[in-house]
Amino acid sequence: MKTITAILRTRPGTEATMRDALLKIADHVRDSEPETIGYHISQDASDPCVFTTYERFADQAAMDRHGTSPALAEFFKTANPILDGAVIIHTGDEISAK
Hints:
Blueprint (H helix, E strand, L loop, with lengths): L1 E8 L5 H18 L3 E8 L6 E8 L2 H8 L2 H10 L8 E6 L5
Antiparallel strand pairs: 1-3, 1-4, 2-3
Helix pairs in contact: 1-3
């Protein structure tokens, strides 16, 4: 299983826009990416400008398809202008899951 953890910080006042954009990509993943095993989004409890995604893919090909999808490109059209710094991305090979 391949994983991505992404941490995104949005500018103050744009939290709802980021939340909506993330939920839209989650809808796309649910409807169009059967080999994306999990797509989790959280908003920091103490800093609502910080969002984290945790994404699980069946294999590298599934991760690559997600990363080059038109839906993700559309997400970044919305997200890029409101980001407060670079997106922090960690990729990995899952070694344990419950």
